[in-house]
């Protein structure tokens, strides 16, 4: 993004806040604190890209993924990199799918409802105003009437229903399942961003996950980050944070980072860790900080994200259009033998993503693989995003292996428990039924885990949580966390919209507390 | 290009320059043969310097003294390893060795440590400096064990005499050290054309071993198996050797411009159109570049690369893209995809260990290296890997257990398919239209990109490519 004319701060000047990470967690609060007149500096580990580089190609898009190695174990090892982890100014929103359902109110009090999982230390009613602010600001396209929340209004009309969406809508109709055009943070009309560039309407190119070329997709570099700059924030790219300096009272006094091969330190009054649910706990474990609860790294969660694929006689060409343009939330409460639920979305993916899924998940190889890939233009998918409950066995730790900087790599152990297994079985049957109803042949199931959630849970009690309900560390009162790591449970909804809403909420709390 | 001017001839363990006499006579001076006694053998039995490098130095001295314009080297067994070392030096531009045009490798000892069973090695070392009677008996047995059919008495007597003339230190040095020296990475992949000869009755260094361990070092080679012959082809069948060599020089294996996968013209036109942005056009052109047949692996060694090529041919049988070389390039670059299975070592190490395990499994199950198995037997082993059931004891060369082989095989499938689908020939084959959704526009927010107007079922836009192989695969 264009950083020309950006206000800059001296490293020996104590700014009000340093924000580590410029994705969905860091960017909204950067903009909000700057707008309140605070001196704020964001440190982004990745480079600053210009969208001219976004080239409609999966291999060339490798540069926007976090490709420093993580070690993945457990009974359902999760893929990182392109699956869920981004880099660059804008963080993972450069490659995110921009699929923005809100959390279901019931998911925030799951324990009260079912005795399983945990309750969040906040209610949907507290979150809703922030959801509305985010949706309005970033430009969410969606249906004018949302079947599962009749009062909800989206600021922009939906993006076009692509072929997988048409297939799923027809199948839902025949099975009596309600569906809606998906809430998508992709502008269906030309859109003026407050403090940012004019964004062009989506051209249906299908390359959301490879970086949006015309500003249609609400990545942070065309939304909250330009707004932050207009209010005097500074963004430093290529700045990898590896240390925090503290005063004799234990409070953070400076953030230590490497930029251009040099170690630098930025003095600050507060620090916000917004590096995602892998890098945030990795940094805290590396430093041995903010962990009197012993919860840092615990309860790592990925969503149950199983997909079902099938081949159609129709010409599908699933690469065209917004990839997940249909949703049903009919299964947010679905099964009698598991807590929570899942949403279903239609799916179109570009060839390498598809080939990777086929080769890994379907296990095809040889001539069968080539033959199956030949049918690419006739394939469509559907997939879920399903609740994962916190679990002791799912944990992020530091490996004995180190990265090029000598910092220990993150090792993530993740596996489904009974609740996820049952939810997955239920969803798989529903999706198979849907695809059979849609007329698919050669149906197969791709087991998959998505997103990075948990590891620094929020709660009301410092003995069992890392941060309080607004994201402030119980141990260090000027250290805050704002990203997917604070989620106490996964929710069925995709996480980014909720992360942005929490980011604004955290900013307000910080401002209300006097900074 | 015809025969070179001079053919250096390097003998086997226990041979000498004289081993080549019948062959040289049959060639009749076209080209002239220059057999060399390696240090410790024949008339050089008093000389020392028994390492591969020292033997190569010795031969390099002989070559420089003659200063031939164009020369070839024939290496027999031990001599082949020396010949390969000289070929590497020649390709690296060493003064005086520039004129090397061909290698003829006869029952060659490979650049990798030669697989000699320990008990045989020990026995050979034991008798070489035993009492004269034992030496005489064992030398004769040694010659007889190494031929397919008995030599004529005169040739056999000469061969036995050569063995007995060898300096025991040179003999022992080869068995204990020279044959075990690992030149696999140092030899790398040579561009000099090579003729690889094997005897059908050669137990250890026959066609299988040559295919697995020697051929990977020669980008342009031909393997010829001579029926009924054991390990001593130059003495067993000198006329057949001469005939094969002459034929080879009339028709060397082509430095084939490795037939690259072709991009159909209609798809090439799409790539060239203003629907496709310049960065992508450049990347697609780079991916469509033919692979170098003499690609020198960096993460893997040449033998492992050959196993990977064989595995890739089964995993993703698309001709015209050297997926194995491209995987090696990726492994060597250190660029990963952001994660790996915790059970596996780092990617380059995992690949090396897995490929060696796959080869060990082939040897354990079939008694043959993986690269020479037919497709169905290779598939059977890969299927075991897929199921987590490929298990090879460590003593037999297994380095990854069944679970780890399963993880690695998943990674291999993914690496292969991702590389393949990045290639414009693959995108054309599946009829992928996405590359045409946008061209070059100035500025961070592109205006007026074409994108897609039609996104629904059964509504292709007129310009969209169609799959070239099949419409619907069921």
Automatic annotation (TrEMBL), chain A:
Keywords: FAD, Flavoprotein, Oxidoreductase. One of its GO terms (molecular function) is oxidoreductase activity, acting on CH-OH group of donors. The keyword Nucleotide-binding does not apply. InterPro entries: FAD/NAD-bd_sf, GMC_OxRdtase_N, GMC_OxRtase_C. Residues 77-304 form the Glucose-methanol-choline oxidoreductase N-terminal domain. It comes from the Bacteria. Residues 394-502 form the Glucose-methanol-choline oxidoreductase C-terminal domain. Belongs to the GMC oxidoreductase family. This is Choline dehydrogenase-like flavoprotein. It comes from Methylobacterium brachiatum.
UniProtKB/TrEMBL annotation, chain B:
Pfam families: Abhydrolase_6, Gluconate_2-dh3. Coiled coil: none annotated. Gene3D superfamilies: alpha/beta hydrolase (3.40.50.1820). Residues 7-243 form the AB hydrolase-1 domain. InterPro entries: AB_hydrolase_1 (IPR000073), AB_hydrolase_fold (IPR029058), Carboxylesterase_BioH (IPR050228), Gluconate_2DH_su3 (IPR027056). This is Pimeloyl-ACP methyl ester carboxylesterase. It comes from Methylobacterium brachiatum.
């Amino acid at each position: 993004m264009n950083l020309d004319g950006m206000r800059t701060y001296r490293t020996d000047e104590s700014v009000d806040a340093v924000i580590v990470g410029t994705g969905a967690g860091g960017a909204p609060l950067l903009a909000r604190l700057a707008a309140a007149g605070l001196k704020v500096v964001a440190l982004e580990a990745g480079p600053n890209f210009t969208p001219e580089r976004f080239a409609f190609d999966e291999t060339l898009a490798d540069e926007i993924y976090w490709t420093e190695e993580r070690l993945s174990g457990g009974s359902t090892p999760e893929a990182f990199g392109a699956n869920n982890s981004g880099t660059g100014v804008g963080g993972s929103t450069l490659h995110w799918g921009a699929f923005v359902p809100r959390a279901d109110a019931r998911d925030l009090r799951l324990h009260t409802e079912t005795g399983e999982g945990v309750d969040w230390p906040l209610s949907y009613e507290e979150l809703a105003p922030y959801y509305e602010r985010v949706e309005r600001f970033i430009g969410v396209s969606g249906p004018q009437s949302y079947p599962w929340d009749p009062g909800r209004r989206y600021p922009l009309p939906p993006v076009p229903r692509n072929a997988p969406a048409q297939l799923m809508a027809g199948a839902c109709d025949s099975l009596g399942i309600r569906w809606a055009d998906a809430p998508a943070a992709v502008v269906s009309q030309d859109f003026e961003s407050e403090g940012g560039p004019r964004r062009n309407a989506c051209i249906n190119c299908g390359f959301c996950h490879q970086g949006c070329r015309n500003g249609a997709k609400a990545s942070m570099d065309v939304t909250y980050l330009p707004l932050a700059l207009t209010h005097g924030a500074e963004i430093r790219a290529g700045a990898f944070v590896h240390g925090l300096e503290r005063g004799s009272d234990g409070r953070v006094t400076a953030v230590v980072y490497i930029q251009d091969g040099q170690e630098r330190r930025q003095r600050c009054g507060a620090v916000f860790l917004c590096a995602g649910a892998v890098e945030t706990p990795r940094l805290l474990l590396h430093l041995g900080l903010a962990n009197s609860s012993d919860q840092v790294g615990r309860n790592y969660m990925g969503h149950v994200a199983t997909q079902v694929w099938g081949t159609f006689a129709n010409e599908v060409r699933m690469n065209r259009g917004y990839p997940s343009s249909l949703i049903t939330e009919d299964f947010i409460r679905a099964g009698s033998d598991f807590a929570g639920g899942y949403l279903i979305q239609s799916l179109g993916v570009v060839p390498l993503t598809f080939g990777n899924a086929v080769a890994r998940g379907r296990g095809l190889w040889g001539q069968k693989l080539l033959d199956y890939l030949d049918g690419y233009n006739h394939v469509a998918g559907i997939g879920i995003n399903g609740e994962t409950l916190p679990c002791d066995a799912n944990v992020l730790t530091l490996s004995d292996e180190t990265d090029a900087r000598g910092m220990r790599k993150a090792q993530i152990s993740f596996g489904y428990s009974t609740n996820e297994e049952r939810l997955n079985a239920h969803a798989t049957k529903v999706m198979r039924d849907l695809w059979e109803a849609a007329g698919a042949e050669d149906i197969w199931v791709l087991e998959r885990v998505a997103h990075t959630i948990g590891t620094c849970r929020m709660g009301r009690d410092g003995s069992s949580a890392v941060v309080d309900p607004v994201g402030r560390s119980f141990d260090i009162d000027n250290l805050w966390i704002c990203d997917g790591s604070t989620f106490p449970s996964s929710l069925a909804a995709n996480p980014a919209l909720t992360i942005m809403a929490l980011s604004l909420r955290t900013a307000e709390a910080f401002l209300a507390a006097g900074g | 290009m015809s025969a070179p001017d001079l053919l250096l001839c390097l003998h086997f363990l226990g041979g000498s320059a004289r081993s080549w006499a019948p062959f040289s006579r049959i060639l009749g001076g076209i080209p002239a043969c220059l057999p060399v006694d390696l240090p410790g053998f024949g008339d050089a039995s008093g000389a020392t310097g028994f390492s591969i490098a020292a033997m190569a130095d010795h031969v390099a001295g002989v070559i420089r003294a003659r200063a031939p314009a164009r020369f070839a080297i024939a290496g027999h067994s031990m001599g082949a390893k020396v010949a390969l070392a000289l070929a590497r030096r020649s390709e690296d531009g060493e003064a005086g060795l520039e004129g090397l045009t061909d290698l003829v490798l006869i029952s060659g000892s490979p650049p990798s440590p030669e697989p000699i069973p320990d008990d045989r090695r020990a026995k050979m070392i034991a008798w070489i400096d035993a009492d004269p009677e034992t030496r005489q008996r064992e030398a004769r047995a040694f010659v007889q064990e190494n031929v397919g059919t008995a030599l004529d008495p005169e040739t056999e007597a000469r061969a036995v005499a050569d063995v007995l003339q060898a300096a025991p230190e040179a003999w022992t040095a080869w068995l204990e050290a020279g044959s075990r020296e690992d030149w696999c990475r140092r030899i790398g992949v040579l561009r000099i054309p090579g003729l690889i000869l094997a005897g059908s009755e050669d137990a250890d260094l026959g066609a299988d071993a040559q295919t697995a361990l020697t051929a990977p070092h020669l980008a342009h080679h031909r393997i010829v198996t001579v029926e009924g012959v054991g390990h001593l082809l130059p003495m067993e069948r000198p006329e057949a050797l001469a005939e094969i060599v002459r034929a080879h020089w009339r028709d060397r294996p082509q430095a084939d411009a490795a037939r690259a996968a072709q991009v159909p013209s209609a798809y090439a036109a799409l790539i060239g159109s203003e629907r496709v942005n310049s960065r992508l056009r450049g990347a697609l052109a780079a991916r469509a570049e033919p692979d170098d047949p003499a690609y020198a692996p960096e993460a893997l060694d040449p033998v492992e690369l050959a196993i990977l090529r064989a595995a890739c041919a089964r995993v993703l049988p698309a001709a015209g893209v050297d997926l194995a070389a491209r995987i090696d390039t990726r492994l060597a670059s250190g660029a990963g995809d952001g994660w790996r299975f915790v059970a596996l070592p780092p990617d380059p190490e995992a690949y090396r260990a897995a490929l060696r395990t796959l080869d060990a499994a082939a040897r354990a199950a079939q008694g043959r290296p993986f690269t020479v198995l037919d497709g169905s037997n290779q598939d059977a082993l890969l299927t075991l890997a897929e199921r987590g059931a490929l298990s090879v004891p460590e003593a037999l060369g297994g380095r990854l257990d069944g679970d780890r082989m399963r993880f690695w095989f998943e990674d291999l499938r993914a690496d292969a398919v991702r590389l393949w689908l990045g290639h414009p020939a693959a995108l054309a084959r599946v009829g992928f239209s996405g590359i045409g959704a946008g061209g070059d526009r100035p500025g961070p927010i592109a205006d007026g990109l074409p994108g897609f107007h039609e996104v629904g079922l059964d509504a292709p836009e007129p310009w969209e490519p169609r799959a070239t192989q099949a419409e619907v695969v069921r």
